[in-house]
Amino acid sequence: MPRFKVLSSHTKKKHRAEASQSHTGNNQIRIRSAVSRINDLAKTWKARLGLWSPADSSGKIRCASDCSGYGSDLIALRLFGLQKRVDSVMTCESCGKKMMLHDAVAAACGIGTRKVSHYADICGRDNAAAPRADLYTAGYPCPSYSTLGKKRGVLDDRGFVSLQGLMYIAEKRPRAIILEQVAAILQKKHSKIFQFMQKILRELDYRFEIRVLNTKQFTIPHSRSRMYLIAVARESLVHELSFPPARSEHADLHFFLEKDKVGTEVLSLPFYEEKLGNRLFQKGYILDVGSSQRFQSVMPNLSPCLTKSRLKAAGYYIPKLRRRLTLAEAAQLQGVPPQILQAMEEAAKLHRLPKRSVDESLGDAMSVNVLMSVLRRALDACGLTKLGSGKDFWLQVPLGEASVNLSKKLFDKYKR
């Protein structure tokens, strides 16, 4: 019989360290190559592309997205009633489950996908051959930058995606851009990549603004803090580019809960009981019971940030109602209309997707209420629309029952 050498724990650690160093070295080579390519593209954009001609505020809007998910951008455009003007020209999503949901969302929104080029691998995409877009939207993977992740930034495969997205921007120079990422990308640890991104946008002659926005600042009681970057090609600017103001108050959480659904699940919650006493079971708290105590916190009248992993594991609990957060409630807290949620559920059933595929996709997505508020300003600023302040729906809706019904009402209002 052959003899197998049993490695000591010290030798195993050494091998792992060597493998990790090799992977890091390869990643650094890949990063240097991407940075060099992006710099070259940024220097030659005017000779390759020329300037944008003035936008037609009633013409077609060619939309492209990376890390497309189920299509939050399409939902936002649909709730403005722009579906007849939108052509989806590019999507990029590595998760097949999400793309099945994306197709269902596009169909439910009545948005044309006949001209769409889909890419499953952003790193393998030939950006020179990819379609040019009026509007480019991307919410790059957050674990590489999140305070809950390993914070490896572009050294991580998921973090490297942000450089690939920047390469598309440098190659095609979309008329308008909306990028979303966890606020932790603004920390000193990630300053090099973020400063590089801004440098390239300046070389591409974009006017851009950066701000951290929270879902709760736009009516919906959901604590979800994200960095948003909006940019418009300077020659396309028809008026000042700015972020929407934040509301000082949000709607009551109880409006977003299905209060008639009462369960029988009673959990032992010593940390929360110590903090809240009897109030824990008398008021409508949403608790993250899937996290370690280090990350547990009490948010009165607010949902904690809904994440992919926790939604997948049904890790949010409502003690007053003795049950877990429902899919419908999670969708409402992300601003998704029930008509769209139904389309996604039907698609999941049709394609026999794993249980909670829709739930986890919600945790990865942009909040529709925030995206709409940002999108309205970006589209108006570059002349693609003349929506005006009257379409700042999430800043104007009364903080009551109307707030939870707003996305449904807008979907019904702007028929195909």
Q: How do the strands line up in the largest sheet?
A: 3-2-1-4-5-7-6
Number of helices: 13
Shape: globular
According to DSSP, the number of beta strands is 10
Strand content: 5-15%
pLDDT averaged residue by residue: 91
Based on secondary structure, the structural category is: alpha/beta
* Share in helix: 25-40%
Order of helices and strands: HEHEHEEHEHEEHEHEEHHHHHH
Rg measurement, Å: 23 Å
How far apart are the first and last residues' alpha carbons, in Å? 73 Å
Largest sheet: 7 strands, mixed
Low-confidence stretches: none
Provide structural commentary:
This protein is of the alpha/beta class and 416 residues long. The chain is built from 13 helices and ten strands. It has helices at residues 9-49, 72-79, 96-109, 157-172, 191-203, 270-276, 308-312, 327-333, 338-350, 357-364, 368-381, 393-396, 401-413, and strands at residues 61-66, 86-92, 117-119, 135-139, 176-182, 206-214, 225-233, 287-288, 316-318, 323-324. The strands form two sheets. It has a seven-stranded mixed β-sheet, sandwiched between helices. It has a three-stranded antiparallel β-sheet with strand order 8-9-10, with no helix packed on it. Helix 4 (157-172) links the parallel strand 4 and strand 5 (176-182). The longest helix is centred in the first third of the chain and has 41 residues, at 9-49. It is globular. The model has no long low-confidence stretch (mean pLDDT 91).
